Amino acid sequence: MQAALTVEQRFQRTPDGRVWTPGAFSYDFWQRYRQTFDPLRIIARVKDVEDVPENWKVSSGEGVEFFALPHYIGPKAYLFNTPKLMKAMSEAIPKDAAVLMRIPSPLSLLAYLILKKRRQPYGLQVVGDPREVITAGSVDHPLRPLIREGLIRGQKKLCKDAAACAYVTQEALQRHYPPNGSAHSAAYSDVYLPECYFSSARRFGKRKSKPWQLVAVGTMDQLYKGFDIIIDALPQIKSNVHVTLVGDGQFREQLEAQAEQLGVSEQLTFTGHLAGAEKVRDELDKADVMLNPSRGEGLPRALIEAMARGLPGIGTDVSGIPELLSQTELVPPNDASSLATKIDELLLDPKRLTMLSKRAIEVATHFRHDKMAPRRTAFYQALKNSY
Fold this sequence. Notes:
2 domains; 14 helices
């Protein structure tokens, strides 16, 4: 059975017809869907370009086609292009296909209007919470409160009417966006963790002259990952630390300027986008502590991957992060002082770091590929059975 999948990610298409992605959603990623649905149609914004950066990955291929929606960036462009998007979305969604939408996503709200009119069932993958992602500091737009409220209400409605709902959290997202009583509901992460990705627990000792290595991984296309909070915290950290920020995006220059203004540039390394999981794991293996001070999340894959490498973590008390870290490793969002204090507290206690490394691996084992894959497959099959 064919499936159509809507995603918020933006892609680029070269003259040879191939579609490319800077990170997530490579061609290999789509194969998990193709075990149940084939062919697979990806409905997303696609920009035509002459070429792409060398480290980008191919996303299209045999059995995976793209339906290119008009390319836009930002709420204003979304509103301006709504008529074109609605027309394109109606053409993009086959009437005889299973439909799956990753939310939160403004595009999914347009798809919902079409599906409701057709009385066509659909499934959802709930990967985030607009209550937290569309917050002050993450999105700088005069209409932010209205956009946030609209996405919250829309996501609740989408979950209420879906035939099947999959959540990346065990409880957090379900509390705010519950499925209807007759829908198939599942909980699993998109993270890919085969047994070979796991490391042994680390042993920490007192650090004298060499700086502690801290790492954070995520997109810089928005600020919800809290990289700016890490930079604000650096002047307040008493321990000798160096921070590596893995990722790229439109706000990188702003973050670099922020570091320069605060005089902490020498304590920071911006790696840019790293192609391939191996290069990211190399950075994780060099680090002592993973930082995840997000303003909003679903269930952060980067944190799970870091925990599989035995990295203790510090995160914010938002959405699914408390399902991964204990309360003693959590700080409030948007609080650089609390983050700095927590970092110092942890680095001054090597025994605690050693204990947290062991716990991190124990938690990460719950997300091993052999445990997640059957849940995903069962969800896809339940969606397929609703048609």
